[in-house]
Amino acid sequence: MRTEINHATAEKYIEDYLAYSGQPSEDWDIDMAANILVDRCYENSGWGEQIVNDYDDIDSDLFTEIMKFSRRHVELKDVWDLDNVTITGWEPDYNQTIDKDQAVDEDGKACYGSYHFAFNGTCPVQSQIFLADDMEEFAKTW
Q1: Tens digit of pLDDT for each residue in 17-53?
Q2: Phi, psi of 91 (to 5 degrees)
């Protein structure tokens, strides 16, 4: 039986997946994952037409990537909201401490290749690291 592709059915599909795999739903941003999943169902058609008939037709690597973004979003939000965090923007040949408003440009594009969140002055090796893709997806929620 074919499932209608929309936000509500995407959320249900993801919730069922998490329940089946024994993962707590609060560790994931289900709303964001559902938005991405629906977008991918219509992506690359050229005319906004549906390109898959059912969620089970989604490539498993793509679904894994969507869920990874969802999990990283929750983790990033948790550290972003802390007061005692220092953010360092990293590039291959330099790094610098930045304010939160310097993480992405006005178009939502990441300004650095990776972001290191250090807590209470911990050394950067002990920091939590997020990549440019993580930051760009997170910035869409502002």
Answers
A1: 889 989 888 888 888 888 888 887 776 555 555 566 6
A2: -130, 165
